[in-house]
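Cont'd.
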Amino acid sequence: MEFRDLLKRMVNSYFVIYGCCFLGTWIYCIIFDPDSVFNLGYFKDMAVFALLGDLPGVLFYSSKALSGKQWNIRLILHFLVLEAVLLVMGRYLNMYHTVFQGIVFAGIILLVYVVVRGVCFAWDFETARNINDKLQKMKEK
Amino acid sequence: MKVSVKEIPENEEEEILIKCHEIDEEILALLHRLKLSSERLAVTVGDEIHRIALQDIFYFETVDNKSFFYCASRVYETKLKLYEFEEMTQGSRFFRASKSTIINAMKISYIKPSLSGRFEVCMENGEKLTVSRQYVSDLKRKIGV
C-alpha cells in the first residue's frame, strides 16, 4: 500500500474509530455504569483516544504489495499493538478499575475491531457486486 | 442513437460513418474504441511474428523488467513498457490493476474482495489476479460505476 493511500485510509478510519469509541463506551456503561455522566472533556479524550488507536495503522505501510500471509501477520501485529495502546489509554482515563473490567474492555476492543473489519469487507463486497453487475451488462450489449 | 448497417458488395471498401450533431467526448470515446478494436500488436515468438488483437489480450504484466501479454491460453513477450501500453489503451476498457499489471475489464469473469483489503479478479480463462485497492476506483471509472 502506498503511503498516500494509507494516509487516506487512516483519515477515514479515524472517524470510524471515533464513532465506534462512543459505541464501545455506551455498551461498556450499560454493563458496568448505567448512571454515568460525561463532561465535555470526554469528547476531546475520545478524539485523542481515536488518534492513538488509528496510528498503529502505519504498520500496514509497505512500498511493495504485501502477500496474503504478510498481510495477515501485520493484521495480528496491528491488533496486538492496538490492544496494548488502548488498554494503557483506558487505564489512564480510568475506564476500568479491576482485572475483570480490563478483560471486558479488551473484549470490547476486539469486538469493535471485528466490526470495523466487517464493515470494510461488507463495503468492498458491495463495490465488487456493483462492478460485476456493470461488467455483466457491458458484456450482454 | 440510431444504428444502421448496410451490406455492400465485396469490391467496395468497408467503412464506418458516424453522423453526429457535434464531436463530443462520447463520440471521441467511441472512435477510440473502434480504433482499438481493429488495432493489432506485433509480438515475436521465436522466429515467428504474431499479430494479436488488443481485444484478445487478457492482461499485460511486467516481471523483472520484462513485459508480457497474456491471452486466453498463451503468453507473449513484448518490448512495450507498461506506461506505453497504458497510453496506447487510454479510453479503452483496460485499467491499471497494480504497479505492474494492466487488465482488460472485458475479460473479467468476476471480481471479489479479499480479507487482505485488496480485490481478487477471476479472468474468463480461470486465471486469478490481484487488484490493488487504490486502482479499484480506476476500474469503476472506466466501466462507469
